[in-house]
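Q: I have two molecules that I believe assemble together. Could you output structure tokens for the complex as a whole instead of separate predictions?
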Amino acid sequence: MSKTLFEKIWDQHVVVEKTTGPSLIYVDRHLVHEVTSPQAFDGLRMNNRKVRRPDLTIATMDHNVPTNDRSLPILDQTSAVQIQTLEKNCRDFGIKLFDIHSPNQGIVHVIGPQLGITLPGSTIVCGDSHTSTHGAFGALAFGIGTSEVEHVLASQTLWLEKPKPFEIRVEGKRKNSHAVTAKDIILSIIKNIGTAGGNGSVIEYRGEGIEDLSMEQRMTICNMSIEAGARAGLIAPDENTYEYLRGRKYTPKNYEQLVEYWAENLKTDSDAKFEKNYTLHIDNISPQVSWGTNPGMTCDVTENIPTPEEYSKGDPNQKKGAENALQYMDLKGGTPITEIKIDRVFIGSCTNARLEDLIEASKVIKGQKISPNVRAMIVPGSQMVKKQAEEMGLDKIFINANFDWREAGCSMCLGMNPDILSPGERCASTSNRNFEGRQGTGGRTHLVSPVMAAAAAIKGHFVDVRDLDLN
Amino acid sequence: MKPFKKVDSIITPLDKVNVDTDQIVPKQFLKLVQKSGFGKFLFYNWRFDEQENKKTDFILNNSNYDGSKILVTGDNFGCGSSREHAVWALQDYGFSVIIAPSFADIFFSNCFKNGILPISLDQKTVEKLQQEKDTIEVDLVKQIIKTSSEEIFFEMDSHKKKILLEGLDDIAQTLQFKDKIAEFEKKSKIPSVL
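A: Yes, here they are, computed for all two components at once.
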């Protein structure tokens, strides 16, 4: 029978299947971080249980780590306790940990691929919704809650209802691939299918517009699948995928043998059926800027903010949602996006803090100074990204432009560490969520690509990065 | 986990769509390493102002709804972050039933791990329930919501229903399959990380 890529990976991981209800699915890789794991380890202790497969479990600290000088003690005592708790849990249960001083520390979804832990055809879970990122490698990867973290630690499996396969085709070619980025593709998709459009599904992204993307760009796409409500995002592996993972620290010894198997098996059959389909044509898409309080509230940089009437298209609940969002964001429908002034710029997060993101942003910044009204920070996705960027001299470009160049972590994507917006501050952010208070209570977030964030940093308001000379 | 069978309570209407888990429990409260005590952080930024005074226009600060165990709310409830702290906060505050037209996947699954019953009903029925002032009864065994004027049937997956009714320890159930898991591991193609 013809199958989608998702169905093939699923079928290969079923341990127990019943006639109705969920199946027991094997987990190949379990990534652990400090925020969603302490209660899970406590549960194991209370029931006198062990971690079944410490050799398939990898931990790092990313969510609440400070991104300033790592030789200083952590001032926030509750954060310090959470970090020490992860250290103790990893020691007690024999789990490999990349701690705050490790050269491999970083955002869990940045280091997984960089270390060759993420593999095509594997199942990957983590107590973090952006685990969908790893789907860029043809892995079935999704976020889970803390009870499920405990379940995976104890059994290396999960009970799961089979999600529905959802095909999103991205067709055509972008006119200016430095200015119109993977972030603009995924924001366009979410704008069109809605933040619940993918609920209950695993999205497979296909088509020329996806095949043209680098691995880092594919990660940006899969990362935000959860913002469309999908359980996971998936891209079939190809030569780019295999090349990216070749020779990394934890790439398996029998890698070439695995590649042979994957190349043969990890693709959707030509006559396989998806339960849902959507196609985005990207020939004419523009850079995107979110204006509201969920990632679906997004428009082209060339447009005006929609009025609640325009946005809701007659749905009273959506209209009320847009009114609340505009009130929170202190914006009015009809205002051109390029007239929105910003106070802060954040280039970081598991969505857009990889080397390529920093390279692209640096091209906009080079030889410029940021607006005197703006405070801007760059938080590399991992210490490895930071080191590579520094070897290329990117840090100097940003520092000379008055950007703050920091250590790796989740930072102001969710503001669990000291990097937060003050009430009322408005931020151009390369992160993934513009929810109320996400980057700091009362803070206002606009989601954009790294080049759009860099351009806004220079001008002090949003601009169409296509209008700048990017060489 | 405490078994769930039946709940009698007035409802709390929360008339919002796309309520994300950042709103249910903001990030500054995710640093705790235990599961208990999150109720005081529930909807924190909607409940309290910057001086930590109660905002009078927020529904949970209306004393008419004190003691309510049933939250009736809008589409796509619990979207965003996977944080189970959101469910711990709802439960610790006193909610044991959440009714909405739809739920985000991870939130929905987290509910069942903590004895909370999430019920999906069509938009019209949810809107009608939001107007209900009297005590209603939610009976999981019969899968029926009884209001003063009608009985509303709700769908529930039989496996999930059993978990709630019996308050099952998921992990103990799974470990009964440990031979099957070991068998699977023997033939797995994906090697260890280390």
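A: One point stands out. Chain A touches chain B through 85 residues (CB under 8 Å).
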